[in-house]
Hints:
This protein is α+β, with helices and mostly antiparallel strands. 31% of the residues lie in helices and 16% in strands.
Amino acid sequence: MRAFAYDWPKIVEIILENKFMDLKAVNVRSSNTEDAARCEALIRKKMTADPNFSEKTGINEKNIKFLSGLMPSYCAEHPQDLCPTGKVLAPDGSTTSKQLEKAVRSFGDKSEIRMGTQVVDLVFENGRVIGAVIMDVKTKETKKVRARNGVIFGTGGYSHNDEMKKKYMGAKFVPYGTCSSNTNTGDLCTIAQKYNISLSGMNQAWFKQVVLPFSMRRFPGAFFLQGDSFIVVDKFGKRYACEKDFYQQRGMQMYQNPDRQVVFFVFDKRSRELYPGPIKGLGGPIPGDGVDKDCMVEGSNEEELTKGIKDLLAKVAPDFTLDSNFTSTLQAQIGRFNEYAREGKDPEFGRGDDTAQYCWHILRAKDNKFKNKTMYPIDQKNLRCILLGLSTLDTKGGPRINADGQILGRASDPVEGLYGAGNCVRSSTHFSYPASGATLSNAVLFGFKAGLHAMKPKNKL
C-alpha cells in the first residue's frame, strides 16, 4: 500500500508528460448548499486541527467555498485525508480502456493487440520467464510467443470461475454475479500454481451488493442505497450497520457474517415512488418500473411482508431461512428507527453523521423536514422489501508482487521476467477500498512500473 500511495503521483506525471493518457478532471459537484456547508465545516475542522494545513494543501479562504461544493472522498473524515473534497471524478471506465488501447497502438508495428486470445502457460529458460503460450479461444490452437523483456499479466481476477469462488470464498458466500469482464477466470492463478508460485489474499475482493434474483437488466450493483425511509436488516430482523456505508463496507459486513448471506432492504411506498432506479449514475437497489415484478415484496404490515419475503427467499436462496422472531423484531426495529428519524440522530449506527455518507446521499426530499436528510419515518402500512446478496466488482487475490510489479516465488524472491498488475495479483489494498478508482489505478500504477522495470538494460534478454 505504501508503494501505491508513494508512487502514484510520480507515475501520473510520467503518463501525462508522455501523453499516454489524458486524465480528465471531471469533478463531481454537489448541487445543494446543505451538503456544501457540511463539507466546509469538515475542512475548517481540519484547518483548526493543523496550523500548517493551508501550507500543506493549498486550501485557503479564497478557494474554500469552491472546494466545499465538490463531493467528498470516501474517507473524508480520516485525519490523513488532508484534502477531503475534489478527488472524486465522474465514473467513465470505458474512457480509460480506450486511452490505454490508443497508448499501445501509438508504438506502431512494435505492438500488437490480439483479441480472442488466452495465455495458458509460460515458457522458461534457465529459471527465467522468456515467453508465454497463447491459445486461440475459438480454434484452441496454441502458439509460443517469445518475450524480449518480460511477461506482464493484467488478466483480472477469478470472478467468472465458479470452482475458485467456492474454494476460496466458501460455498455460503459464492457471490451473485459480478461486473467484471467475462474473461476474468483466474488464468494467472492457475498458471502460477503449476510452477509452485504461492497465492495470497485469495478470499479478497472488491465487494458490492446486488438485488436478488440477480439480473443485469436492473443494474450490476447496488453501489449506493438510495432513499431515506428505509432500513436494512439481517435474518433476525435487526439492523446491523449504517445503511449509508459505502459499497465495500456493506459487502464486507455481509462477507464476515454467515447470518448475512442475504439481507433485507425494507422501505415503503413513499421511497419506492421517490427513488426508483440508479443514484448518481451508479446502481441503487430500488428497482424502476418494469424490472420489479420478480424482486420486490409488498405488505400492509410486518407480518404480511414477512410472508412475501419467505416466498421470495425460497426461490433465490432456499437454504437460507429467517429467524422465527423476524416479524416482531422487524416491527420493533422500524419503530426505533422512526424515532431516530424524527429526532435526526441514529444512536446505534450514526447514520448521517459522516460527511461523505451524508453528501453521497440523494438530495433532501421535499417532504423531509427533519434534521437528518438520510432518515425519514417508514410508513408501516405500506411496506416494501427487496433482497440483497453479495457480489463482486472483481476478486483481488493471486501471486504476490513487489514494488516493481515482479511476481514473487515461494521464497519471496522475484521470478525473473514475470510481472503482474491489477486484480490478477494480491492487492496492496487488502480488504479495503480506499477511494473511487482504486481498482483501475492499482492496475495502471503497477502495470506501468512493471514495464519500466522490464525495460532496464539488466533485465533485457
